[in-house]
Every structure is written in C-alpha cells, then in structure tokens.
Amino acid sequence: MPELLPDSWFARDLPVLRAVARLVDSPEHGGAPYLGQVVPASGLPRAEVVAAVRGLVDTGYVAALTNVAGDVVRITGISGEARRLTGLWPTPQSEWARLGEQLATRAANAPTDVERERWAALAAAAAAVGEHDGALLMSALIGGYVPRAH
Length: 150
Known about the structure:
By secondary structure, this protein is mainly α. It has helices at 9-25, 35-42, 46-58, 80-86, 92-109, 113-129, 131-143, and strands at 62-66, 72-78. The protein has a two-stranded antiparallel sheet with strand order 1-2. It comes from Klenkia sesuvii. This is Winged helix DNA-binding domain-containing protein.
C-alpha cells in the first residue's frame, strides 16, 4: 500500500475555510475578503493559507478572483457545502442534536410536573428514534421535503 500524505484538512484547510466563511459572512468585508485578510483571520502562515485556498478553490468550496499569474487575490464566495461544514448553515445532524438539547432543556426547566413529564417523554422518544432517522427527519425539515422509505 502506498504511503499516504499527511492530513491537510484538519490542520490547514478547514481552519482556513472557517476563517474565509467568517469573513465572507461578515458585512464589514463586503462578502469578498482579500487574501491578506484571510491570513491573520486564520492564524496560519501566509504560505499555508495560499496552499489551503488553492485546494479549496480546486474542490469548489471557495470561489476566488485571481491575477494574471493565477494567484488568488480575493475570495468572492463560498459554496453551500462550505457553509454547512463551517456551521453557517445547518446540517441534518446538527439540527437533530439541537432538537435533543432543546427537549432536554425544556424538560429540566418545565414549570410543572405534568409539563416536565411531557417534555421528558418527547426527549426519550427522540432518543429512541436515533441519530440516523432523526437526521433524515431534519433533512426533510431543512430541505422542505419528505424522503421516502426504501
């Protein structure tokens, strides 16, 4: 088996994508930050940011404006998948987890025993459904469609 290259996603690319997403989503940068703004926002050296951005552009997570030499000058947008990976948009899994947290909080803070029991029963039912089917439900709610069982 050939030797794999060291991971660049968690150490370099994802932190840069998160920095880009924060800047693109921020009104003070007009949604199109310069590469020079991404470097300090990521906390990584410029060479690492350049390599990460190149990979993010190549895979479609980030859209960029380049100069005649092909160097990235400015980030012009991010994909929907990039928004989900960075937490700007929900994923079915994250929304299912949020629902579980809400149900537990409501059960713990209910003003009466009857309400507490109802919220606790709903939380238990959600837990019994499980993460996989819960994520399918959240996918339907987020996307506005109901998936068919196979």
